What we know:
It is built from seven helices and 15 strands. It is an alpha/beta fold. The chain folds into two domains: 6-58, Vcp-like ATPase, Chain A, domain 2 (Roll); 64-244, Vaccinia Virus protein VP39 (Rossmann fold, 3-Layer(aba) Sandwich).
Amino acid sequence: MDKIKKVLITSDGKKFFVRDLTKDFHCQFGFVKKANLKKKEGSTIKTNIGKQMIILKPSFIDIYRKIKRDPQIIPPKDIGLIIAETGINKNSLVVDAGAGSGALCCFLAHVVKKVVTYELREDFSKTVKQNIEFLGLKNIMLKNKDVYKGISERGVDLITLDLPEPWKVIEHARKALKTSGFLVSYSPTIPQTNDFVNKVNNTEGLMHIKTVELIQREWEVNDRKVRPMSRMIGHTGFLSFVRRVK
Ligand SMILES: C[S@@+](CC[C@H](N)C(=O)[O-])C[C@H]1O[C@@H](n2cnc3c(N)ncnc32)[C@H](O)[C@@H]1O
């Protein structure tokens, strides 16, 4: 996948991603001449049919939104809560499983020092590798391994799980985490959450802090038409926060 070089944004927020600056850029509003694509960020340019667009520099999130998706990803709202509740930072070591499409591990790698992510399936591992490369991340190690069999890292600040049977990793996670470190499990259903939390409660050294479902409601703000959007995403997943206390 070619890297995104420029973002074009219309006044109503439609975004277009330019990957090749050596050719005119074609979109639903006509085309932008290649000479215009090279103008500096903040410049307003016009397509051949007169549609105005502003040139922006692609940010991490612009590029991130274009990653390839195979299995269902964790959405940014839930990733935001994981970061906020665990306080991970540029010095943190994170272990993640299963990598899936790589959405969570790639976002975390943008924030922390190092991420090691486990993925059982070879086909998904290829997608993750592709996404790591597309985002230009150098601090992720992908292990094509079964995390139910063990975690070899030690002194870990945060372990994130998005797995069908997360309770199978609790004992491995306890050993891998440093005391005070966090374990966060993301599950779409309550039976999974229930089995996970029950096992945590029966494991010496771990403490269940809370289980949260985060609902995000977007609003339309257009002059005096200010109201919730008619459509919203109802449910994504439950996040269970656990801490190693001994
Ligand atoms: C829902 S996806 C994870 C999505 C990921 N969190 C993201 O944001 O892109 C679940 C992944 O767990 C992987 N998986 C299932 N069991 C596993 C195991 N025992 N070890 C490692 N990965 C496993 C699956 O192959 C699948 O890719």
